[in-house]
Design a protein that fits this description.
Length: 614
């Protein structure tokens, strides 16, 4: 067993920042990651980091834009924490050596992004995430923080008190991909989940193959509520053949969207009469798909994004890697012709419920970054707000886990305070298959460990996962995980995409249930103990099943149109009944639906919901 004060799971932007912050507070920190840090998906972020750096800008304006972009489902304390802390964090990155793009006067450059009232998106060409990741990895190495890379975290070590709010997290169980060793990692002060997105729930996504929502699923099964899972962001500009992201920076620099008829449809068809291509992402994605569905798409699939008029010098200076991506994956030279683009799954606004300090309702367990939901983004994230979320809330979680005094949080977690129980009648069985089969009997809490010593809790979790792996490897007959995963991905893309309707969501739940039952018979074809990616992917597929179901349940329950969540039968935002977060808790394998009110009261003002138009 390995022992440290703070264990950080994941080595992307949030995980690195959390580890640095905890180490600054004097904690013995270690990162456990299934990827080497510089292979983390943060490196694929292109556009930039929103921060109010200019005299003409302010954190208050940034906060208002973020709340408006969230369609008034963001929590004001989290939004104001993000916007107040982001300038300091960007300056810190610059001091650490991050190679930001510069204006002629030497100042850090900022560009316009969708939904912003001021050009406050700080960037490093079109590879901002890559620069950020390497800058912080340098700090990690400089500080001597230990990294267990290519260790896949399979489970949390959490006690089994009846109420999740009374439980404690004492560590995690890790699988060494290189050797097959399964060991415990005991955390004396806290575990921070920074495992990133869940894009592999869909088959057309900008997310990497590793983005399987592991942290969200593990926390969910351990009793931590997951919040607003129905809100999935579909980025308007991805390459049709692969899902590779084309940054919003192209439109921020002046790129234009055209349909098959050569119309600049964002204006000419009235989707966003003021902001056009720089409306928020949910607005632009729906506009593109409407053009395709009404017969004005190109090859009945995509639209064109044109940046030729910007000139080669400007494109090469600010968007050079976009030229390479378009050439390599679509065979299109954007200096000579428009790029084909269509919406693709990009980001999850929902995730593990936390407060603005990164705490969950389980003592000793934290979350930060895309796997967490504070909630900063509400029902729709603005472009340029993901990277500041990583560094701001990664820092907060690291500080708090290491014992820094940060005052009382304003956002509650767990079933405490003001909440209401929801009704859930999906028409099909949901949750765990009972009785659970070997492959799905992966626990969530360590049975009989209420009040047990931390090392006993961790050791029991380790033994449970060792038994699970042995059964998966030794099963002689069964199906491969890929058939189940493919089925889930196709179902989600078909029924739980940009446009949703009740019958489709019900059909999705039925198909997810069938996939869950098939997963009981899953087997691992590779019997080896070293670099057994088939085993890892099989375990990840269980996480994908749980999260696909959670997303669909939330989408079925929320009978309104808000932000990224569009319902055919409900074409209006219902503030009287839906200014609340959709919460799901996993009670011994049975999902429970409940709600918590949105916190619209900020430091100096209360945010009043208004019509969101661009």
């Amino acid at each position: 067993m390995y022992e440290h004060d703070v264990i950080v799971v994941g080595a992307g932007g949030a995980g690195l920042r959390a580890a640095i912050a905890a180490q600054e507070e004097g904690a013995d920190v270690a990162i456990v990651s299934k990827l080497h840090p510089v292979r983390s998906h943060t490196g694929a972020a292109e556009g930039g980091i929103n921060a109010a750096l200019r005299d003409a800008d302010s954190w208050e304006d940034h906060a208002y834009d973020t709340m408006k972009g969230s369609d008034y489902l963001g929590d004001a304390p989290a939004i104001e924490t993000l916007t107040q802390e982001s300038p300091e964090e960007v300056i810190q990155l610059e001091h650490w050596g991050m190679a930001f793009s510069r204006d002629d006067d030497g100042r850090v450059s900022q560009r316009p992004f969708g939904g912003l009232s001021f050009p406050r998106t700080t960037y490093a060409g079109a590879e901002t995430g890559h620069q950020l990741l390497h800058t912080m990895y340098e700090q990690l190495v400089k500080r001597g923080i230990e990294v267990y890379d290519e260790w896949y975290v399979m489970d949390l070590a959490v006690t089994d008190e009846e109420r999740p709010e009374d439980r404690e997290c004492h560590g995690v169980v890790g699988y060494d991909i290189q050797t097959g060793e399964i060991s415990g990692f005991q955390a004396n002060d806290g575990v921070i989940l920074a495992t990133g997105g869940l894009g592999q729930v869909y088959d057309h996504t900008t997310n990497a193959v590793a983005n399987t929502g592991d942290g969200v699923a593990m926390a969910y099964r351990a009793g931590v509520p997951i919040e607003d899972m129905e809100f999935i962001q579909f980025h308007p500009t991805t390459l049709p053949s692969t899902g590779v992201l084309i940054t919003e920076g192209v439109r921020g620099e002046g790129g234009i969207l055209y349909n098959e008829d050569g119309e600049r449809f964002m204006f000419e068809h009235g989707y966003a009469n003021n902001d056009g291509e720089l409306a928020s992402r949910d607005v632009v994605s729906r506009a593109e798909l409407t053009e395709v569905n009404e017969g004005r798409g190109i090859d009945d699939e995509y639209v064109h994004l044109d940046m030729r008029h910007l000139g080669e010098d400007r494109i090469v200076d600010r968007l050079e890697n976009i030229v390479h991506l378009s050439k390599d994956f679509e065979g299109v030279d954007p200096l000579e012709e428009p790029m084909p683009v269509k919406p693709g799954q990009h980001y999850a606004m929902g995730g593990i419920e936390t407060n603005e300090h990164g705490e969950t309702c389980v003592s000793g367990l934290y979350a930060a970054g895309e796997c967490a939901c504070a909630s900063v983004h509400g029902s729709n994230r603005l472009g340029g707000n993901a990277l500041p979320e990583l560094i701001v809330f990664g820092k907060m979680a690291g500080y708090h886990a290491a014992g820094k005094e940060m005052g009382e949080a304003e956002i509650e977690t767990g079933q405490r305070g003001d909440y209401e129980v929801g009704e859930l009648e999906p028409g099909v069985e949901i949750g765990d298959v009972q009785p659970a089969g070997d492959a799905v009997a992966d626990g969530g809490v360590a049975a009989g460990t209420a009040g047990a010593a931390p090392d006993d809790v961790v050791q029991q979790a380790v033994e449970r996962q060792r038994g699970r792996v042995e059964k998966l490897l030794n099963r002689e007959e069964g199906i491969g995980h890929s058939a189940v995963r493919d089925e889930i991905q196709e179902t989600m893309t078909e029924y739980v995409n940009v446009f949703r309707e009740e019958s489709g969501l019900e059909q999705a739940l039925a198909e997810i249930r069938a996939a869950r039952e098939r997963y009981r018979d899953v087997k691992v074809s590779d019997p080896s103990r070293t670099f057994n990616t088939d085993l890892i992917h099989t375990i990840e597929t269980r996480n994908i099943i749980d999260l696909a179901e959670a997303i669909t349940l939330g989408a079925l329950a929320r009978d309104e149109f808000r932000g990224a969540h569009w319902r055919k039968e409900h074409q209006e935002r219902k503030d009287d009944s839906w200014l609340k977060h959709t919460m799901l808790s996993w009670n011994d394998g049975e999902p429970e639906l409940w709600y918590r009110p949105v916190v619209l009261e900020g430091e100096n003002k209360e945010y009043e919901p208004k019509v969101r138009s661009y």
